[in-house]
Amino acid sequence: MPILDTPFARLDLIRQPEQANEPLQAFDAADEYLLSHLHEQGLMADTRVLILNDSFGALACALARHCRVVSSGDSHLAHLALEKNLLRTELPSTGVTFVPASEPLDGPFDRVLIRVPKTLALLEEQLIRLHGQLAPGAQVVAAAMIKHLPRAAGDLLEKYLGPVQASLAVKKARLLLVTPEDKPAPTSPYPTRYRLDAPALELINHANLFCREGLDIGTRAFLPHLPCVQGELRVADLGCGNGVLGIVYALHNPQAHLTLVDESYMAVQSARENWQAALGERPVDIRTGDGLAEQPSDSLDVVLCNPPFHQQQVVGDFLAWRMFQQAKAALSEGGELWIVGNRHLGYHVKLKRLFGKVEQMAATPKFVILRAIKS
Description:
The chain has helices at residues 29-41, 58-63, 76-88, 120-129, 151-160, 217-222, 244-252, 265-279, 318-330, 347-355; strands spanning 4-5, 10-11, 48-52, 68-73, 96-100, 109-115, 134-145, 164-166, 173-178, 192-196, 201-205, 234-238, 257-262, 285-288, 300-305, 310-311, 314-315, 331-342, 357-363, 367-373. It is an alpha/beta fold. It folds into two domains: 4-178, 3-Layer(aba) Sandwich (Rossmann fold), CATH 3.40.50.150; 192-373, 3-Layer(aba) Sandwich (Rossmann fold). The chain has a seven-stranded mixed sheet, with helices on both faces. The protein has a seven-stranded mixed sheet with strand order 14-13-12-15-18-20-19. Strand 1 and strand 2 (10-11) form a beta hairpin.
């Protein structure tokens, strides 16, 4: 496993979720470039450093012994990685404060280090929330691998903070150096909202939500084919996003007990607000989590899932396969996993290996809806 060697620390880090023979490392050249730049600028023990979107805790772990670190992001998996990497590198967990992206920050901050996220709406919301949080003379630096750095990221930094100067490229990474200026308080365009006709719902979507502007086509294909068995079933919406699958299921089955879980703090925030609007005080468990990793075995009757096919910029089926395994462990005998997936992903084959019995319940030219039964 590669070692992150920086002026601040030498670290052996892991990604989350862990997998055997991990092909990817928990840091990249943009992390290294950012830390080298910060070391050149100088850092005092009482400097307050805010880190945004630290994927696996590389930046926070490197700085934990050298300054006062606050880390903020929208990924529960990133938070888990930070906690595990602090522990494995023998750093005190109290050395870093983590703030979910759904919660307000508590400045002022002397340095802000930003890993440019895949979703620019998340970056925009984070920059808006930085208003009034910077100490006098604060330095702000954003970093990314060049292939993941759109021009729009620099435009957002300039719009909300001040002039931006791009660094030279180093190992295919680049820094954007920001000179903060006094600007009027911005108005956030988030959350966004869209409406469903059947059932009639208005759905709230915070900044980092997938398909913020409208229902994604996979979910649209899935909704008409949700299971419709009535009774006190225990049902989970796994990777719930704004909660639409779980909410629609709950509206159709008033006796069902719902659990909605997602690794995005903003997704869970959206799902809670949408559940409240649609179902009021009806009991529900809505939480951030590493999928169903914390769900007791044999505790569910139905799992609904529109699985992701990427983690940040990395495309693959590792997360989906892991979610299927978690669903099987959490389902009771005879329990059912219902999923929607692109035809070309071949989920039918994977599910058959896990569950044995798999049925295609519906199909569109692009998607299939599958039911896997635990025996």
